[in-house]
Amino acid sequence: VLSVADSKRKRTTFTAIQLLVLENKYREQQYLSRIDRARLAVDICMTEKQVKTWFQNRRSKDKDMQNSLPMN
C-alpha cells in the first residue's frame, strides 16, 4: 500500500532560461494552440504537460492579481 507521501510527484523546478522564454511567450500569447505548445516544449526541453500547466498557473496568477486590485 502506498502512502500519500509515496505517491506525491516532485515539484518541477524551471531554469532561468525556461522561465524567461515562458514569460516572453505568455506576454505575446496567453493561450497556446496544441502545435505552439508542442513546439515550445521541444524548444525549452519541457514536456507539453509542463508547458500547459505553467500557462494555466500563470493565467491563474494574473487573475488573482486582478482580483486583489482595489476597485475605484
Task: Give the tags.
single chain, 72 residues, mainly alpha, 4 helices, 67% helix, Homeobox_CS, DNA binding
How would you sum up this structure, described in words?
The structure is a single chain. The chain has 72 residues and is mainly α. It has a domain at 28-59. It is built from 4 helices and no strands. The protein has helices at residues 4-7, 16-28, 34-43, 48-68. Helix 3 crosses helix 4. The longest helix is centred in the C-terminal third of the chain and has 21 residues, at 48-68. This is Homeobox domain-containing protein. InterPro entries: HD, HD_metazoa, Homeobox_CS, Homeobox_TF, Homeodomain-like_sf.
Rg, alpha carbons: 15 Å
The total of helices stands at 4
What is the H-and-E element order?
HHHH
Unreliable runs:
none
Shape: globular
The average pLDDT score comes to: 91
Sheet of most strands: none
DSSP E strands, number: 0
- First and last CA, distance: 55 Å
The SS-based structural class is mainly alpha
The fraction of residues assigned to DSSP E strands is under 5%
